[in-house]
Amino acid sequence: MTIPFTLIVGAGPSGLLLALMLGKKGIPVRLLEAAESLDDRPRATHYSPPAVYELRRAGVLEDMKAEGAFIPNGACWRKLNGEFLSGVRAAGSNEPTPTPMTCFPLNKLNLVLQRQVDKLPHVEIHYSHKVTGLGQDEAKAWVDVETPDGPQRLEAQYIVGCDGANSQVRRSLFGDWEFPGFTWEQQIVATNTYYPFEKHGFDWDSNFIIHPEHWYMAARISNDGLWRVTYGEVPGLSLDELKARQPMKFKTLLPGNPDPKDYKVVSFSPYKVHQRLSKKMRVGRFVLAADAAHLCNPFGGLGLTGGIVDVGGLSDCLEGIYSGQADDTILDIYDTVRRAKYNEIVDPVSTGNLRLLFEQNPETALEESEFLKMCKRAETDPEVGALQRRAGDALQYDFRQHYRK
Ligand SMILES: Cc1cc2nc3c(=O)[nH]c(=O)nc-3n(C[C@H](O)[C@H](O)[C@H](O)COP(=O)(O)OP(=O)(O)OC[C@H]3O[C@@H](n4cnc5c(N)ncnc54)[C@H](O)[C@@H]3O)c2cc1C
């Protein structure tokens, strides 16, 4: 019996997108998901141009637009009293581009991806299939899986860990605590909240508020008045304590100092945030992508963007091997390139964005922050603005250049 080509662990956005991109190329895929259904928590909302390039290539951008995805007008930085400091317009908000910055809540993206995957005849999704261990030899790799019908061992030529921050694939390869990097001391709370920010002068779609204690982000995430409000909290509080403090936090943070009757919180999730990168993204027949391989705080909007760029590149690598256009050393190039891009772009940008919020004195931020100084220059110099909008493009890398000529 021939060994199946690919098995993907984890049906989050990265696993679903990889299954879709491979499946559309005619490559058979088996996708294993531990949960009974897709994750519905409030997480990614914004996708930068390099991720939009891959979403377009995968053929999901039109469906996303039909479900309410929109191009935000940009991001600005403010003081706690709402005073505007500076801002940067989003790619695609001023000029047409095939890859504009795009806003679309992750739970909706997962559904769009799942619908398209379900139409592909040779892609199988198995829910309630939890990977517990793995192994490999010269001819194949395998995972041990808990299933509703009892334990099973499933084999493939290549197995991709898209199983998120606590990846069992990564832990089995390197050890439970081997995920180099650090965890921020800061506690964050992400909410989805209906509140008319526009009526209080918030005319930018994303707003970052600089303050040593009451730093937060408010970003419009739908066309019907839903905003993502993510704020910093005191470390070490229980879920009940965080919930009890939320009305006080909103009264202090939000423009207009609202009471609970003035807004509607529809989801509330505390998160610890990390900056971590796996030692390798390829070990023999196992490959890691997205959160399984790297984590960053969400204030740069780069977490899933980095993951989607991994997936687009990995789909080209696997297609090259499947079709005989590349040998499997292309996966070593994937490992080197994607880890370098994390170190050069994702980690420093996301770390800088979060530090700006709580370390910078808002009164002197415009004189002291190199980033805000550049935003100020971009307000009057279109060339600086264009460079700033396209800065993330350096995340991209076309692995097809390593196909045999
Ligand atoms: C508050 C917040 C805001 C964010 N905002 C942004 C943003 O604006 N832009 C951005 O780019 N990123 C953002 N991110 C990051 C983004 O949400 C993540 O990078 C993304 O969800 C990771 O996707 P993934 O597919 O790698 O992992 P996940 O979404 O975690 O999916 C992993 C899947 O694997 C499954 N799984 C786990 N273990 C096993 C196992 N043993 N066997 C089988 N299946 C398993 C899980 O059930 C899950 O379905 C944000 C994150 C947070 C917390």
TrEMBL record:
One Pfam family, please name it. Answer: FAD_binding_3
Keywords noted in UniProt: FAD, Flavoprotein, NAD, Oxidoreductase
User: Signal peptide position in this chain?
Assistant: none
Question: Residue limits of the FAD-binding domain?
Answer: 6-347
UniProt cross-references to InterPro entries, sorted A to Z: FAD-bd (IPR002938), FAD/NAD-bd_sf (IPR036188), PheA/TfdB_FAD_monoxygenase (IPR050631)
Report if keyword Nuclease is assigned.
no
Q: GO MF terms on file?
A: FAD binding; oxidoreductase activity
The record's annotation in PANTHER family points to: 3-(3-HYDROXY-PHENYL)PROPIONATE/3-HYDROXYCINNAMIC ACID HYDROXYLASE (PTHR43476), BLR0106 PROTEIN (PTHR43476:SF4)
The name this protein goes by in its record: FAD-binding domain-containing protein
Identify the species of origin: Penicillium cataractarum
